Amino acid sequence: MLVGVRGEIDLFSAPDFRDYVCTRTSPEGQFILDMSKVDFIGTAGLAVLDTVHTRNIRDGRTWAIICGRPVYRLLRAAGQETVYPCFASVDSALGAWHDRTA
């Protein structure tokens, strides 16, 4: 499953972002959250990523975030760039999954 988001994620849009992502994930399988077209993400968006990460781990789902510069900058500033499965592209995420199962 590939879910893409774009635009700005701030205090006002974070609840919609959370609902959008959480209603589009299935209980099993792989999930890629493409955030490469996000122009801005504030700390409220980081709380949503934590929720998504926790749900995916709990459900045993393999997942990845495609990070554009704003997303990666926030994760790095928060010291969490290694907490989440971040990749530069969908192809690199799929390649990493393939390497783990090969």
Description:
- This protein is α/β, with parallel strands linked by helices.
- Helix content is 45%, strand content 27%.
- A 4-stranded parallel sheet has the order 1-2-3-4.
- The model has no long low-confidence stretch (mean pLDDT 90).
In short:
By secondary structure, the chain is an alpha/beta fold.
Give, in order, the helices and strands: EHEHEHEH
N/C terminus separation = 20 Å
Structural class: alpha/beta
Biggest sheet details: 4 strands, parallel
Strand order of the largest sheet: 1-2-3-4
Shape: globular
- Figure out the total of helices: 4
Strand content: 25-35%
Low-confidence regions: none
Radius of gyration: 13 Å
Average pLDDT taken over every residue: 90
Helix content: 40-55%
Number of strands: 4
How would you describe this structure in keywords?
102 residues, alpha/beta, 4-stranded parallel sheet, 4 strands, 27% strand, globular
List the SSEs and their pairings.
Elements (H helix, E strand, L loop, with lengths): L1 E8 L4 H9 L7 E12 L1 H16 L3 E6 L1 H9 L8 E2 L2 H12 L1
Parallel strand pairs: 1-2, 2-3, 3-4
